Amino acid sequence: MSVDTAYLESVKKQFLYYKILGEKAIEQLEPDQLFVSVNEDTNSIATIVKHISGNMLSRWTDFLTSDGEKEWRNRDSEFENDLQSKQEVLEVWNKGWNCLENALNSLKPEQLSDIIYIRNEGHTVIEAINRQLAHYPYHVGQIVFYAKQLKKSSWESLSIPKNKSGNYNSEKFAKEKEIKNFTDDELKRLK
Question: What average pLDDT is seen over the chain?
Fold first, then answer.
């Protein structure tokens, strides 16, 4: 397997991991909790979802052929909460992630060094992917942290539970060494 092919497989798995992590956090909340904002400078989870999705639709629509900051995008409106239900939040979430997934699945390894633009700034495809692979997990982390704060009953851990690192490591080290993406086991655990 070429390095370029391995890279594409790896980023697809990592994006999927963060998508599922966000969904598992959202699943644990009551619908009204998605719209809680603790002050004027804090975005609700619904607003964060709307922003992530808006960014994804802008960046990944016609990814290779048009600027990643589309003329039709109104970034400021992404921070105005007009979503009304958990179902709407999840529809907006999935619309963005589906756009990302379709763009990644259409990429060929030999396109990774092509130049694309975001606000007229040139990026290789790899740089553009890495940029978003930093951006989306940043916001998913906000969603997870906020969800843990809002959860009214016990939180189902999405990572290694408190005081369980020893058990986790024992299980990992009991297995034979192998080359694989860290998300392989994590995706199974989260599903």
Answer: 92
